[in-house]
């Protein structure tokens, strides 16, 4: 059973077991490295009748970065990249929500990585809603945005012998969200 957009109005929490916050980075100018953060919390207030009144925030634990290669993950946690000991959280807080169509939304907010906060705009697709076997109303959203890591103070790199650099500047952040309505 799905419900109409106005019926979705309410407060939600991200379901960490069914949500993925990932990223894609260019490596050695020839391939892509994919990874995800496994520890995060997020809340949202959805206003189905007036989506512009919706709000949300996400706090991601930088220490939870995982690319599937422990040596690389350890390097990403150092000051060369995310400096997890000094900056344990990456945060995103909405400042504007704009409905583009029945299923497309543009969410603008402040993204903080390390000690730098910049506005970013993420295009999301509303993938639907359902009541799960436990009686929870869930909504799904998928979105992504490309950011410049250098703009957030993540500047480490190494030159390649034939030209170019080891790590690309453009990072794609990916969000596959399952949020549960709170009673």
TrEMBL record:
InterPro entries: Lipid/polyisoprenoid-bd_YceI (IPR007372), TTHA0802/YceI-like_sf (IPR036761). SMART domains: YceI. Residues 11-180 form the Lipid/polyisoprenoid-binding YceI-like domain. Pfam families: YceI. Belongs to the UPF0312 family. This is Lipid/polyisoprenoid-binding YceI-like domain-containing protein.
């Amino acid at each position: 059973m799905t419900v109409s957009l106005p019926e979705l109005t309410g407060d939600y929490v991200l379901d960490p077991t069914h949500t993925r916050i990932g990223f894609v980075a260019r490596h050695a100018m020839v391939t892509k490295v994919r990874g995800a953060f496994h520890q995060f919390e997020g809340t949202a207030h959805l206003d189905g009748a007036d989506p512009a009144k919706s709000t949300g925030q996400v706090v991601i634990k930088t220490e939870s970065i995982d690319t599937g290669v422990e040596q690389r993950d350890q390097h990403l946690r150092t000051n060369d990249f995310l400096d997890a000991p000094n900056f344990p959280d990456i945060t995103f807080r909405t400042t504007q929500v704009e409905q583009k169509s029945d299923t497309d939304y543009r969410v603008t907010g402040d993204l903080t990585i390390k000690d730098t906060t910049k506005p970013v705009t993420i295009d999301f697709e509303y993938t639907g809603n359902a009541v799960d076997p436990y009686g929870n109303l869930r909504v799904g959203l998928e979105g992504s945005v490309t950011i410049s890591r250098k703009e957030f103070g993540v500047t480490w790199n190494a030159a390649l012998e034939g030209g170019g650099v080891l790590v690309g500047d453009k990072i794609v952040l990916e969000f596959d969200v399952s949020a549960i309505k709170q009673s």
